[in-house]
Amino acid sequence: QVQLVESGGGLVQAGGSLRLSCAGSGRTFSNNGMGWFRQAPGKEREFVAAISWSGGSTDYADSVKGRFTISRDNAKNTVYLQMNGLKPEDTAVYYCASESEIWGTRLKTREAEYVNWGQGTQVTVSS
Question: Span 56-84, mean pLDDT?
Fold first, then answer.
């Protein structure tokens, strides 16, 4: 089983940037697609970005396209979310997650398709 730990959250002004990291443990980390989700107060958790096991394919929610970039370094067992042009509506707890399928060919965007979750890191964007 993969264990995930997020870091890099914090308070930033609108227009600023943050880079979130998700460190994974377990031998199979590099074999699984990864995703970032977020949950704002009073709202359901929503998809933000996904990356294939190799890092060769990515997908984004429309709300973050052109501003956020997901990447991974399998040698370091780490997935990143670079967030630029932050807006107050990006305020949320951000979670990374890994899917169960090994060497999957389809990027996953639904919460139910991920089996391992981190504890989350808070991102707050002030106006």
Answer: 97
